[in-house]
Amino acid sequence: MELFGKVNVDWLGKKWYFLSFSLIFSVAGIISMCMHYAQIGSPVPLGVDFKGGTQVQAQFQQTPDTNRIRQAMDAAGIKDARIQGYGPASNNEVLISLPEQQNESSLDAGQKQISDALASRYGNPFKVRNTSVVGPTVGKQLEKQALLATLYSMLGMLVYLWFRFQLIYGVAAVVACFHDTLITVGAFALTDREISLTVIAAILTLVGYSMNDTIVVFDRIRENLRMNRREPLPDLVNRSINQTLSRTVLTSGLTFLTVLSLYIFGGEVLKGFSFALVVGILIGTYSSIAVAAPMLVAWQEWRARQGKAAVLPAAKRARV
Amino acid sequence: MKKNLNGKIALIVAVLAVFVFGIIGVSWIPWPGQAPKPLLQAMTDRVHLGLDLRGGAHLILQVVVSEAISAETDNTVGRIQQDLKTANLSFSQVYKPDPNKPSLIRVEGVTPGKGSDVRSLLETKYSTEYDVNGDGADSSYTVTMKPTVVTALQKKTVQQAIETIRDRVDTLGVSEPVIQEYGLGDNQILVELPGVDNLDRVKSIIQSTARLEIHAVAGGPYKDEAEALASAGGTIPSDEEMIQGTGTVGTGTGSDSVWLLRRVSVVAGSDFRSADPGTDQNGRRNVRFTLTNTAGDKFYDYTSSNVGQSMAVVMGGHVREVATIQSAIRDSGEITGSFSPDEVEILSKMLRTGALPASLTYLEDRTVGASLGQDSINEGITAAVVGVLVVMIFMLIYYKGSGINADLALFLNLVILLGFLGFSGATLTLPGIAGVILTIGMGVDSNVLIFERIREEVRAGKAASAAVDQGFAHAWVTIIDTHVTTVVSAAILFIFGSGPVQGFAVTLTFGLIANLFTAVYISRVIFDAHLNKLKPGDLVSI
């Protein structure tokens, strides 16, 4: 069985379509993030890991009624409780959150109060499945750590690619990764999902995965460049992409299927994580073809227009 | 040309055996004299489950180390005042001017002309731990704790807090508790207690002050209560009480003893600041301890009027140690007795952990209920199994005979990955299971790379074995590049992440390393074995 026998698509010719596609989604994501920022003070909804506060996950025997729960909270004097359903409706699970406190000492009371209020003022028997109480110190620490981790990760890969290929390859790959991260985070903003620490882990993974994919294309470009110095660069890059297309689509497809399995069967706790990977894998594959490769060619042509020598040893496209 | 694969096959079998051992250990084999464990239990014993899969409590505490520093410098303030008085050097005050800088002490109002005397006194006595500054021009000097000493004290305070918490958590009877330093040097402690779901009880236990007291000994040791009563003349005086001693305390015999102690304690739990085992000038083992300032005064009064008498250390309602007062003790002293090495350790620990060295603030607590943990396990495993099946079936359809090769490599990859986990004692968390699922996807990538290349070579007209050779050779470079970048990303996740995220980084890294062995080496051997059987001109099934 063979899906991609003889492929001969002019990928670079389509670069303007790709650019518009990327721009539309990036801008949509950015607009959504700005709107979120105006509403809740952060570009994406943040999980309790980052924003701090108290969160109680309760599973009820009968279908929970959010209004009655809120009444119970108010009657018990618990202000600003946020109540939302969690997971598929058949689970009867509810997430009750209290916002972050300024200092750690007032955090503690919240969790017990919520349980007591539910037990005494709302008749539905329930079981507490999970509680989190996160102080502001830890939340800020985590934000800093997550940001640092992402930056170091990209820096590390830039250096590695510089070492194995040339600087422009590294830059093109990192730009593609930024593009992927932006669109994935934008997807969270657009679908109003929370970003927790495990989601950050997923984002770092997809950075690695997108790099993976980009490297496969770059490897082939480098190999073809060694063998064929007379071919114009755009043609060579197109050929490289076509040659690796079969592998790219297959691997991405298979990895996508496993991650999809995680999204569907893996349970509520990993939903954010698997959503990030589902979006990330698709976009990561796309970016190797649509962002990284065209950047290489564009850089070459820009240098040619400046009159500098070709960095990538291949002929320029002949002007006719 | 047929290759000799026997050596390679032997190597593969050996490696696999090692990793299967990693998963199941040997506890399921019926060794003589030991009942074999059921296989499933042997596996789950070796692979540790994280809190999010087992259920339990997770706390992050901050040790307020400034309190410990403050206590130490308070002590020094007292000593400086004492020393200046003894040397007849007058001063107006010795104090700490800035509550936010507990390591800074000022000596003010020194008589002009006596400045250099004051300075040399301060330097002689305190320069190992403090920097003395100032030239007496405004009749004052500053004594600042050296930064290295401050850091050392902070570290020690955190360690002491960890020890104390561990001691107290032990009373909860939790199996495999985790109590360790946490984070990047901010004096934070992580406490993880699997199976505990009542956070309030945990917190109250941690905050409690163990009941440790020192009492004056009125009489003893007695063999039993009757003897003690008899020696007191039939009734125990109202200011005394009868306490049991444990084991060899004071008597050197193995049986319990009874003591008559003064009811009111001389010093108790929170009065102790530290205690360490040591030796006195005769080489005998002792316990050196320090008390807080106020307790020091009390203790001084008591000990100076009771030299030669005994005092008893009472903990949890039992006499644990009895020692003789050698001399007046203010705030640091030694308890000497005929201690064994173990006994000095235990006694020091009891005194140290009798009180927390500084207060703790709670930065984060979470509890995961056991039912959620179990659900997470079930869901994670379902997703993993579905993922593996989908991939395996696809590989068979798409690559036919070679698909079997890839599926076998994938299965062995998982075996080695689990073996790694068993050996390293790493914890499997829910994101860790996700890491396994991702490993499946990325592992199959290597196979796809190789197979696609082989197909290309076959299309270009190469013979079977040449095509396989070229396929592996070209794909190898790409496989290395992609694996290194993902491992770099996982390493960074490990450094900056915590708990569950680290679990993910660990399984991903192990999985990728295992993949290098299975997708490249094992696949190659299987291909070669297959090629050995082919007649010239036959095609590879791919």
Keywords, please?
heterodimer, A: 320 residues, alpha+beta, Multidrug efflux transporter AcrB transmembrane fold, Alpha-Beta Plaits, 2 domains, four-stranded antiparallel beta sheet, elongated, disordered C terminus, B: 542 residues, Hypothetical Protein, Haloacid Dehalogenase-like Hydrolase, Chain: A, domain 2, Gyrase A, domain 2, six-stranded antiparallel beta sheet, 14 helices
In brief, what are we looking at here?
Chain A is of the alpha+beta class and about 325 residues long. Chain A has helices at about 15-40, 50, 65-75, 105-120, 135-165, 165-190, 195-225, 235-265, 270-305, and strands at about 55-60, 80-85, 95-100, 125-135.
Could you characterize what this model shows?
The complex is a heterodimer of chains A (320) and B (542). Chain A is of the alpha+beta class and 320 residues long. Chain A folds into two domains: 197 residues, Up-down Bundle (Multidrug efflux transporter AcrB transmembrane fold); 82 residues, Alpha-Beta Plaits, CATH 3.30.70. Helix content of chain A is 65%, strand content 8%. Chain A has a four-stranded antiparallel beta sheet with strand order 2-3-1-4. In chain A, helix 5 packs antiparallel against helix 6, helix 7 runs parallel beside helix 9 and helix 8 runs antiparallel to helix 9. By secondary structure, chain B is of the alpha+beta class. In chain B, helix 12 packs antiparallel against helix 13 and helix 12 runs parallel beside helix 14. The longest helix of chain B has 55 residues. Chain B is elongated. Chain B starts with 5 loop residues before the first helix and ends in a 9-residue tail after the last helix. In chain B, 44% of the residues are buried. The mean pLDDT of chain B is 80. The chains are: A alpha+beta (320), B alpha+beta (542). Chains A and B meet through helix 4, strand 4, helix 5, helix 7 and helix 8 of A and helix 7, strand 18, helix 11, helix 12 and helix 13 of B. Strand 4 of chain A pairs antiparallel with strand 18 of chain B.
